[in-house]
Design goal:
The complex is a heterodimer of chains A (274) and B (335).
Chain A: E1 3-12, E2 15-25, E3 30-34, H1 41-48, E4 56-61, E5 64-65, H2 71-77, E6 78-81, H3 93-98, H4 113-125, H5 141-154, E7 159-162, H6 171-186, E8 190-194, H7 198-204, E9 207-212, E10 215-220, H8 222-225, H9 228-235, E11 239-242, E12 251-254, H10 259-262
Parallel strand pairs in A: 3-8, 3-9, 6-7, 7-8
Antiparallel strand pairs in A: 1-2, 1-4, 4-5, 9-10, 11-12
Chain B: H1 2-25, H2 33-45, H3 51-85, H4 98-111, H5 116-140, H6 146-171, H7 177-186, H8 194-213, H9 215-221, H10 225-230, H11 235-257, H12 263-275, H13 279-303, H14 311-328
Helix pairs in contact in B: 1-13, 3-8, 3-11, 3-12, 3-13, 4-5, 4-6, 4-7, 4-11, 5-6, 5-11, 8-11, 12-13, 13-14
The chains are: A alpha/beta (274), B mainly alpha (335).
């Protein structure tokens, strides 16, 4: 399953948010999308999910325009993981995950034992079996995010679109979610995710795309794309990028006036800080 | 374990409803439980019974009991549907103006001194028209959350319809028509006949079919439009069909018994506490609880005072404290 975006213009209503966006996604690849608030990451995702119409250009799923795919067929191939949200009604985690079976079921059908097995496998794969019967409304934000990932896995898609999967999670849950995303990619799933944290892109992405001023500014491997100059342009923040002894991934640290700087003592570049 | 518990709960409700129906048959001024047993025994052995007694039982009480069951179930089913569709636990079947439209229709009918059947027909049409107007406004306003647009349009149209009702109340003959209008607006099963029961049955059944067919899809609608769409649901079609179905059910119920509030709002919450939010269990549990609730309230209506107490007063007087108790006891069916 391939996803190809060619010269895409996207937006909503009369407003065009981004133009001339071209990128393709290989199977098993994780693509991280970075961009400042309001750059249009979510709008781009909604367009790729078919929730907003394409303004110009093409989105091709297996060579066919996205709009030519019936909604259900599309949903069998592209799954969406929204940001962990509070559900209104106390469905159990299993009931929420089972909703991922919807595109595979006839309009009037309910999930059966096979669907239940697929859902339980998805939960087991994420180490969530013990939460299956808990109300979704009573679990933590991190657990909800994992439940929504399990729902997307239950959808048996080829492509996962994740809107800031690490937002609102504590540090441990952020790392757990990222490592599960890596594991899903190893199994052949393609993942597009948005993040505000360059470190997360270093940790999880094969390629990074930068969305800024309604254009795709850069597209390539994290170490090529995520440079201090690019991040300065994106966020107007000076950063240094390097690695700490013992960590494999590169890290990004801001350089702004800290209280110690103001006293005139300079501790040197952050990468050598204890 | 949980599923078995929940299924058990449903059967318990069915049993309770059956007992309530029997009890309701035997409550009233004319004949008590012993007469009922005698009449049933006589009927089963083919003996002749007191004709007045059999008229009371089969032509007055039976339609009333069946009507209470049908209307209670209908209002609760519509309430559960609307609460899920609009993702709001405070929504009741009249959110899109169906009760208002039906009331305006009935009030116009009473004002024009039309026969009962015509009043019911206008009321039914008024309910459907009001919701149709709300839906048309919702379709005309694009680019916003469609569920929220519908609710807001419903409030606006409801206010307009309410103004119409108030106007007719002022114009109506204060000795003859005004009491009839007031009484109708508070809801009653007093005058319900076999013909009424039979005439609303098709609308109730037709409306129930989509609710049953889409019962699992209904769960997906509670996720909101965008998420449901990414799961392959045609949300616009599904919502249109379900709104039409719930509206049909409510309009049919309101057209024969007037406005009976609270059932559609409160009963789905109680059902959700009993069986959980899965619409496949929530729908039957709401219908049975709604039927049982209206049976109880109707029994109270004809036994606590010398004259019959309008149902709208009792459903609120019984329902509101119960609802507050549920709130205070911390058993939240939502969140």
């Amino acid at each position: 399953m391939t996803l190809e975006i060619r010269d895409l213009a996207f937006g909503y209503g009369g407003r065009t948010v981004g133009e001339n966006v071209s990128l393709s996604l290989a199977s098993g690849e994780v693509l991280a999308l970075l961009g400042p608030n309001g750059a249009g990451k979510t709008t781009l995702f909604k367009t790729v999910l078919g929730l907003l119409p394409v303004k110009a250009g093409d989105i091709l799923l297996n060579g066919q325009p996205l709009s030519a795919w019936p909604r259900r067929e599309r949903a069998k191939r592209i799954a969406y993981v929204p940001q962990a949200h509070a559900a209104l009604f106390p469905f159990t985690v299993l009931e929420v995950v089972l909703m991922g079976r919807a595109p595979h079921l006839a309009p009037f059908a309910s999930p059966g034992s096979r669907d239940r097995r697929i859902a339980m496998e998805a939960l087991a794969g994420l180490g969530m079996t013990h939460l299956a019967m808990r109300p979704y409304t009573e679990i933590s934000g991190g657990e909800r995010q994992m439940a929504l990932i399990a729902r997307a896995v239950t959808q048996e898609p080829s492509i996962l679109v994740m809107d800031e999967p690490t937002a609102n999670l504590d540090y441990g849950n952020q790392m757990r979610v990222l490592s599960h995303i890596r594991a899903l990619a190893t199994r052949g799933l393609s993942v597009v995710l948005s993040t505000h944290n360059p470190d997360h892109a270093f940790l999880v992405a094969d390629r990074v795309a930068l969305l800024h001023a309604s254009k795709l500014n850069a597209l390539g491997s994290p170490s090529h794309v995520l440079t201090p100059a690019a991040l300065k342009q994106l966020y107007d923040i000076d950063v240094v990028i390097g690695s700490i002894d013992g960590s494999e991934a590169r890290l990004c640290a801001p350089r702004f006036a800290t209280p110690s700087d103001m006293k005139g003592t300079n501790h040197g570049s952050p990468e050598r800080n204890p | 374990m949980m599923a078995a518990e929940r299924k058990g709960g449903l059967w318990l409700l069915v049993g309770a409803l059956f007992l309530l129906a029997l009890a309701s048959m035997s409550v009233g001024k004319y004949a008590g439980p012993s007469e009922i047993v005698a009449a049933l025994r006589a009927a089963s052995s083919g003996q002749a019974t007191d004709p007045v007694l059999s008229t009371v039982l089969w032509n007055v009480r039976l339609p009333r009991v069946v009507g209470a069951i049908l209307i209670g179930a209908a209002l609760a089913a519509a309430g559960a549907t609307y609460q899920g569709l609009f993702r709001n636990p405070l929504v009741s079947p009249d959110i899109l103006g169906v009760s208002g439209g039906a009331s305006l229709g009935a009030v116009i009918g009473i004002f024009l001194s039309l026969p009962v059947l015509a009043i019911q027909a206008i009321s039914f049409a008024g309910g459907l028209l009001a919701v149709g107007a709300v839906y048309a406004v919702g379709l005309a306003i694009r680019g916003r959350d469609p569920a929220l647009t519908l609710v807001l349009a419903g409030i606006a149209i409801g206010a307009l319809v309410g103004a119409g009702i108030s106007l007719i109340k002022i114009l109506a003959d204060p000795y003859d028509q005004l009491p009839a209008i007031t009484y109708w607006l508070l809801g009653s099963l007093t005058a319900i006949t076999r013909l009424d029961v039979v005439s609303i049955l098709p609308a109730l059944l037709v409306g129930l079919v989509p609710l049953v067919l889409f019962c699992w899809r209904m769960n997906l609608m509670t996720l909101g439009d965008e998420e449901a769409q990414t799961l392959g649901v045609d949300t616009r079609l599904t919502r249109s069909v379900l709104i039409a179905a719930a509206t049909l059910i409510t309009a049919a119920a309101v057209s024969v018994c007037g406005v009976i509030g609270w059932i559609g709002l409160v009963i789905p919450h109680i059902a959700r506490m009993l069986v959980g939010p899965d619409f496949r269990r929530l729908l039957p549990a709401s219908m049975i609880s709604g039927a049982a609730y209206l049976l109880v309230v109707d029994m109270l209506a004809r036994s606590i005072a010398l004259t019959e107490v309008p149902l709208g007063i009792l459903t609120a007087a019984v329902g509101a404290p119960f609802f507050l108790w549920l709130l205070a006891s911390g058993r939240r069916a939502w969140q």
